[in-house]
Amino acid sequence: MTCRGHDLMLTSESSSVAETGSKTFYMNRPTSESSWLNGACANSGDCPASVNNAECFKGGHCLCTPGYYYSRCRDGCVPDCPTSNLQSTILRYPFHHISGHNMETISECYTSKTAQAHCLNNPECLSFDISPPTCWLQKVTALDKPDDFEYKANNDYYQRTCL
After folding, report:
1. Distance between CA 26 and CA 23 in Å, rounded?
2. String of DSSP letters for 59-88
3. For a surface tag, which of 26, 113, 114, 131 has the fewest beta carbons within 10 Å of its beta carbon?
4. Per-residue pLDDT tens digits for 125-136
5. If you average pLDDT over each of 11-25, 32-46, 65-79, which comes out highest?
């Protein structure tokens, strides 16, 4: 994995070196999961204050505010993600869905893994809802349509993550 910033490049290589004649510095980035993402919480104060747009989501886990992408390179939450940086990993927001913005409805969709596979096969898919045996793919996120992001007991909302 290579993560690029303004004057910083983070790679999974084992050494840290400055590039000669450049302002670019190469350094290690741990490949393990975030120390805070999906961590147990009772309220948003239990999630790191240093991470903008992180909250204790219903269900008691620290997540990005619905619609924000978790960025592994930044170990934080970002409002936008270029299509080329979308990842195959997803975050689950239990008992929620986006109402009225389905680009595709899939029957016989019994698991989140099946829904995820359909989403990854559609380059426009940013998120999906599932209520077995049906799932719905979307090219919007909860941040794009906050008024349509709703509690729904038998649904779960999933959103792709970002590099």
Report:
1. 10
2. TTEEEEPTTPEEETTTTEEES---GGGEEE
3. 113
4. 999 999 999 999
5. 65-79
User: Phi/psi of residue 90, each to 5°?
Assistant: -135, 155
| Structural domain boundaries in the chain | 1-32, 33-162
CA-nearest of 153, 151, 155, 157 to 138 is 157
User: What pTM value is reported for the model?
Assistant: 0.79
Helix (H) or strand (E) holding 65: none
Q: pLDDT tens digits for 108-158?
A: 999 999 999 999 999 999 999 999 999 999 999 999 999 999 999 999 999
CA torsion through residues 35, 81, 145, 140, sign: negative
Residue type, 121: N
Tokens of 134: 């049906």
- Rounded Cα distance, 150 and 157, in Å: 10
The alpha carbon dihedral of 107, 155, 80, 23 has a sign of negative
Angle at 155 between CA 96 and CA 139, to 5 degrees: 70
Which fold would CATH assign to domain 33-162?
Hepatocyte Growth Factor (3.50.4)
Question: Residue 151 to residues 67, 99, 116: CA-CA distances in angstroms?
Answer: 14, 10, 21
